[in-house]
Amino acid sequence: MPKKKQLPMSKSDAIREHKKAHPEMGPKRIAGFLNEDGYNVSPQYVAMVLCNDRRKDGKQGFANPGDVPCSALMAVKGFVAEMGGLEKAKKVLDVYDQLVE
Predict the structure, then answer these.
(1) 48 or 57, higher pLDDT
(2) Could you give the 3-state DSSP secondary structure of residue 36?
(3) Is 42 in the same domain as 18?
(4) 46 and 74 inside one domain
C-alpha cells in the first residue's frame, strides 16, 4: 500500500495561512484552493476553523447591542417572522407605541 503524501502543515494551519494571505476569500473559495493543494477540506470545515479562531480572539460574528439577552433576540425574531417581515413588524410596533402613549 503506498504511503500518503506528507503535507507541509496541518489542515487548520493551512486554512489560517490562506486566510491571512487572502482575507477577502470566503470558506468555499479557500476550500477549493486547499483541495487543489492536496488538503481534503470542506467549506464547512474551513468556516468552523475560522469561527473558532474568531472566538479565541474574542471577536464574535455579530455585536450584541448592550445587555440584550439571547432569549429576547429570539423572541423578536419569532415576532418578526409572525408578522411577515421586518417592515410589517415595525408598523405594528409604531401602532403599539401610539396606543400606549
Answers:
(1) 48
(2) helix
(3) yes
(4) no
